[in-house]
């Protein structure tokens, strides 16, 4: 088999760099091109010395990258830019996987409400698919042109809630989601909030009740229960490099119990390699998914208020970004989903 | 004025050491004695070299400490031990401030339910007072013999909720509290969970829905609204040394709004030196209370679900333990409440 | 006594902020004015919410600050700027303490060699004094107009070496100094190197053999032995907020031993409150000086190579910057040197 | 080809766990057995949940492990225990790779001096080989029964010094080595020094001038120059999980210069995949080798003292332990040395 020729647009951000790392270890891909606006003209190891000898590619422009006719182009860009790029270079890629937010929404109105503008090229969205593989893998067809790769928070949350919601073991009303993300989630761009002495030994909520991942979360949960779901979602900045843990609070429905919920999760995820249901009585920890594509879920109950407590964690850069993108690529090309993603978590 | 002669039982734990630090800087106290089971016979700087020259006291037994007839004895001990000690040495102290859990409950049944045994000496509880100063300072009388110093989580939560609850701006039903604590909160005792490589870059919930601080939280909230309040409470272990941040979710009552809530907090806390209401649009951060006795509160709303989001943070070792103990002592002896507690937060 | 009216130029950097924190707790000073180029027009708590209610001053320009006629002006500015400011506003201050590098050198040629320009106002240097108090306090006179506050690395190193050098117990040739500094030492300005995910879990040397603190170190050591001393100095960036630890390697002279060195240190520092000589067999740790003005020194030997190993540590923001500035101010005005500087280290 | 059947004795320590992780990803090995004294009878995921589904082996005794007749047994044990085990189970393994210190010394006297006892079974040492592959790979023969895997500090130091020493570009006298290691280097056993709040934001030297790795370092350096070399070695505890950086100071010999040294390193390591010589002007950083088997070396000079400054860093758990063990196994069995070790560093 010829290897898939891959390009990464925005390869000098954190998600881009993680993707480069994963593609270099993938047996069926050839990393052919990397682009960057900020570092165009330099080589990849000029920016990241750790890649010397394993990826010595020059950083080119996105135009050049598309013109090099990769089979798969991954984009890791701020909102709005990918859509234009995908349109401009249509025909120059067989698959584009966007790790940004341009192709995550079924409903243009929702996109417009949260991102402040309508779709520029509606037709692109017709052949695009949003995919958390464990929930949407069947939507990816052999000719899917664009995959909207999910956000990190929404991935941890949808995987954490699906079996309980689908089996009506919890109420879809009043769900509260308290998420905590490592600092790579805030990107590689310099800000005072992510300057080391200001972040280290610090902790705070941000965008409480107004984070742009909210509509993406609600879209997936609504699909699961086939009705509109609204959630309260508050993210926090956690002083670690990697990892997201979402603590999710929902009310048991009549007759549901922790053990029935546990059985539902066991059954729903029994064939899912990347989902790890932790034994009752133990707690999911971001340490146990670090550097891996696993999602670890633990279930707890507060009996005296009838509340199911779900903690769901992923590595925000892998299952929350680059790893899931590779997983989606694997599905699209008929590879085993695990290909290139079997790294055991680095527990320390 | 003669200085108050103070003793610290359990002075080699984190809360004990922080108290020693504070008492050494307090203008009206003399640190006269420190005790420790594990290090008895050594000097304080043998255990903590940082105190060389500023506190060279020998570590004695608790019996010896009580016999040295301190005015104020602070106890920082595991549950159950202080009660016995307070009884045995009755008459040998004018005030005992327990930083443990023995004197935090009005209702013996609740204590028994969560701690597995009834009170050993009921009469001691008759003249003991539980006090988060901003809520209970008037309960402390000139002859109060025992003060039950509040837990760290309950302090951050009660201060965060009081004005909204008291003014009926939120429902007292369905409150969800997601708390995150620095590792000093887990104590100085060695455990695998707090071994550096296992804690660093890690994050997890623990005792979800079953933490012993739950009844203490509910006791205070119930007093505020004069009816039984039940909450869902989940603590998490945060990879920082100090600080607790509680994110609290509650439903607005009819007619309440973020701005009316904000006004209620402003009014409730206008004379409280240690409470800092952050401007709307900003987020409380544990960095901004580090090493200080302040409690920082920020208010947020999720309009689309009608949810008030409160983040309340304290330094778990100061306002959450030793600082609040000093504040309670100040009240009991008629000192300005701020005495010895005016350190400006160490923001880095 | 009237309180000294103090102003801080460059109050929004880390050293400036730490100085503000210390001055607010100093019994004989009144913090009257703070200036900032970047944040002029905002209030101090706009930049640092932790100071709300304790320092609500507006951030003004440095011109305005000088015109407000403070007794003492502290400057925390990049190299070269203070000299101009001190000249321009001559007569508007009784004492100027520069925490930058403009007044640290006796020899203009050395300054010019390392900073690329000669002195702009030579006359200012005639009445300026460089002072690590434990070494130079007698140089500060009642009419000293300018104090050049030492650099952080040089402070840890000079205090660590003085007794051994002065007593000729080590050779002044071939001294190797390996220093490690917390990230606040790199300043509050944003850089990729100090972006949280790039600094956290990282460690590296920087400016190996060419750091600008080298001539300052050599100036002090040369004074001690009254001959030219050259050292090899390599700083490293340590992923902590605060603290410097310098590990210093020197050859014992004939007849010298660890115990004779230990006695020399004990004797040299017996009256120095801020110098802590750790017991033989223990190691100095930045934890034990955190947030304090102490310098902790431990002595070790490598018998098989005849090497004395000194580890000397300080809090880079306190004894290495703001605390030492306050200590110098205390000397100049005849206060007890410890005034405002008795905080016990925060060991966690 | 049949896969090599591998067993790990001491699989629940950090080095053991990292080895398990690497062996699970190695194409030519089958992880057949894991042993542990502390956790015997539990399964591997009981101790490390992160391995659920990828390594569900039971933790057995070392006797059982040897009796299961693995081809390769890796031992990660405290000093002295492996030698007995290797003797007792002779014939039950084709290769034993000891990650401890029992087979690191050519000279029994040195072992006895530093470890307090003579060899128990001298004959075992006759067919054992110490191997940092880049220096000693030719010593490994097809029938080598025991490989003494090098210590973490010695690996970083020997690789950092070899080309300069071998080419006589530096003096072998007066070498000073200042090393800093992440906390996994201190092991998984609980100690107060590695309790999170005591380690976090802390930094100190330990065993200055008397660390047991000193003789191992000197043995290798002495072999390189064919004469006895003595070094001054001071390790420090770095508050990160992984990584060692050694800063090495040596005097240039007559005529040597930074550029001639650089050329010597380029030439010496031109065919070494795992050695990365960083461009002049840049600094090696533990971040750039994290989770990988690379060793990154940067060269610097202090012209005014004629000193070469080498910084050499590795991941202490990979190139400093488990990765190097796999590399040695690859050599012994004729695999490509890189097999199973091509993970790109995780730079964040």
Sum this structure up briefly.
Chain A is an alpha/beta fold and 348 residues long.
Number of strands of chain A: 14
Physical arrangement of strands within the biggest beta sheet of chain A: 3-2-1-4-5-7-6
Order of helices and strands of chain A: EHEHEHEHEHHEHEHEHEHEEHEEEH
Largest interface, counted with CB-CB under 8 A?
A-B, 48 and 49 residues
Number of helices of chain A: 12
What form of chain A results from the Cα inertia axes?
A: globular
- Quaternary structure annotation: homotetramer
Secondary-structure arrangement, i.e. CATH architecture of the largest domain in chain A: 2-Layer Sandwich
Examine the coordinates and then state which fold CATH places here, giving the name of the CATH topology of the largest domain in chain A: Dihydrodipicolinate Reductase, domain 2
- Segments of chain A where pLDDT lies below 50 for 5+ residues? none
CATH C-level label of the largest domain in chain A? Alpha Beta
Strand-pairing-aware structural class of chain A: alpha/beta
| The CATH fourth-level homologous superfamily of the largest domain in chain A | Dihydrodipicolinate Reductase, domain 2
Give the N-terminus to C-terminus distance of chain A in angstroms.
37 Å
